[in-house]
Amino acid sequence: MAFYTPEKQGLCPPETPGVGTICLVSCQTDRECPGIQKCCPDGCLVECRNPVYGYQRSSRY
Predict the structure, then answer these.
(1) Better pLDDT: 20 or 26
(2) Rounded distance, CA 18 to CA 5, Å?
(3) Which segments constitute the WAP domain (predicted)?
(4) pLDDT tier at 61 (50, 70, 90 boundaries)?
(5) What residues form DSSP beta bridges with 57?
(6) Is 38 helix (H, G, I), strand (E, B) or coil?
(7) Which of 26-35's residues contact partners 24+ apart within 8 Å by CB, and which partners?
(8) Between vectors from CA 46 to CA 48 and to CA 28, what angle results, nearest 5°?
(9) Please, are residues 8 and 52 in contact by the beta-carbon 8 Å criterion?
């Protein structure tokens, strides 16, 4: 998905279990987020979140 192209340093934090009863999209690119925040998915939400740095293994596998 071109929706979450990395533009700022760091990775999106892991998704929060149980989040997503209301689907809101508050950003589409990192440029729309203030400071160091990145545009990240979190369940059904897409919002500006503080990044994490370093190696992060995906929890989807």
Answers:
(1) 26
(2) 24
(3) 5-52
(4) very low
(5) none
(6) strand
(7) 28/3, 29/5, 30/5, 30/6, 31/7, 33/8
(8) 75
(9) no
Neighbours of 31 (CB within 10 A): 9
Give the position of tokens 């929060």.
16
Q: Rounded to an integer, what distance in angstroms lies between the CA atom of residue 19 and that of residue 55?
A: 24
Cα 13 from Cα 35, distance rounded (Å) = 16
Note the pLDDT tens digit of each residue in 36-55. 999 999 888 899 999 998 76
Tokens of 46: 């897409």
Alpha-carbon gap, residue 19 to 40, rounded angstroms: 13
